[in-house]
Amino acid sequence: MWPWLVLKVIPQRVLTDKGAEITAANLNDKDSLVKAFQGAIVIFAVTNFFESAMQLGVEEGKKVEFAQATNMINAAKDIPTLEHFI
């Protein structure tokens, strides 16, 4: 039997009430990510494998996911305030 991790969805309001700032960017556009990351101290980065895999197939989805992760890493390198990249 596989162990399963159950995640509780936290409403955005709960996070913003605790001081979190939530922003959006295009994972396929490094400049968009740099703009969204400005002033960040912590970045919790998540790729979007399933959208591209469903549209392009698994192998192409892997390539898109790798490119998205690379974009986030490279954009984060441009943020002088960044202390943690997760």
At a glance:
With 86 residues, this protein is mainly alpha-helical. The protein has helices at 12-17, 30-37, 49-56, 58-76; strands at 42-43, 84-85. Helix 2 (30-37) packs across helix 4 and helix 3 (49-56) packs antiparallel against helix 4.
Major sheet size, sense and barrel closure: 2 strands, parallel
Name the poorly predicted regions.
none
What's the structural domain tally? Answer: 1
Radius of gyration of CA atoms, rounded to a whole number: 15 Å
Outline the structure in words.
The chain is mainly alpha-helical and 86 residues long. The protein has one domain (22-85). It has four helices and two strands. The two termini are 29 Å apart.
List the helices and strands and how they pair.
Blueprint: H1 12-17, H2 30-37, E1 42-43, H3 49-56, H4 58-76, E2 84-85
Parallel strand pairs: 1-2
Please name the defining characteristics of this protein.
two-stranded parallel sheet, 4 helices, mainly alpha, 86 residues, globular
